[in-house]
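re: ur msg from earlier - yeah i can do the zinc ion complex, just paste it... oh wait u already did. ok heres what im feeding in:
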Amino acid sequence: MRTTVGYRRYGAPTALRRVPVERRDLRPDDIAVRVDYCGVCHTDLHAVRAHSGEDAVLVPGHEFTGVVTEVGPAVTRFGVGDPVAVGNIVDSCGVCAMCRAGQENFCREYPTLTYGGTDRHDGSTTLGGYSREYVLRDGFAYPLPGGLDPAAAAPLLCAGITVWEPLHSLGVGPGTRVAVAGLGGLGHLAVKLAVALGADTSVISRSADKATDARRLGAEDVVVSTDPEQMADARDRFDVVIDTIAVPHELGPYLRLVAMDGTLSQLGHLGPVTVQTLDLLVGRKKLSSAGSGGRPATAAMLEFCAEHGVTADIELLPSGRVNEALDRLQRNDVRYRFVLDMSDLG
Ligand SMILES: [Zn+2]
Ligand SMILES: [Zn+2]
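and the outut:
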């Protein structure tokens, strides 16, 4: 085993503590990554604050960038010193139909998650990127394209790919009318990516507060969801609505904004929803969801972001302030993603 240092939850929902973290010795197809920057995702917050799984060892973090420090003998894709990025999947079965289709995120045997997952070889629980080193199969790391700021690129690996997949699979491009509901970590990247894809992009927000930010991110219009008149005016207006609202909410008002044959993709809140079928029937509307992405799409997203200069708007904090970041994320007090600078771990 090799020992690094990271942030771990102990017992009941509480703060993370800085502790030694063990990593496996490199297998032939493994690389070791010095983690430089790790984004703080809503999933991390839920994991740390959840009342279930209190006995489980938890080191969060599943969107990070860093540099390769060591490679196993069978590794050909990377060499020591290469900048890399890692998302929320670090392995999959590799042989099921989903894996063969490049959708490892849908692996029928369930992909190995970057933290809280089960290693396919030794059965150990995976520990995430809130640490100075990570060891993984080389096939699940991505070369970080030059020109992308490594701190601001970290959130692309979870938030970015999660919004990229629906935009890409729904064929968003020049002239597509896209609306993004909720302007947080996911939402602000959805706006930037939709704009870079050439879509006519709007933001749906509960208040007009974020209108200036929405326009700065490239949105042409803001629809205030608490204003019935604005919502009525926007009826049937968008080919694609990307719903990134993180809390349970009525889908009807958002489905009514979808144009005929258009799609509402609900990403922010995963769980049971209630839908009036009439909201789907009138206009042949479709409801879908997405989360994470496969390896080909993740690589393509990173290339696209490098080409178009898309990264997250971040607030960079020394990793020692991780608990403050989680507290503020819980209050939605971030524009738009915290990234932890791991260099204070030595
Ligand atoms: Zn995430
Ligand atoms: Zn599979």
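cool cool. The chain has a mean pLDDT of 95. ping me if u need the other ligands too
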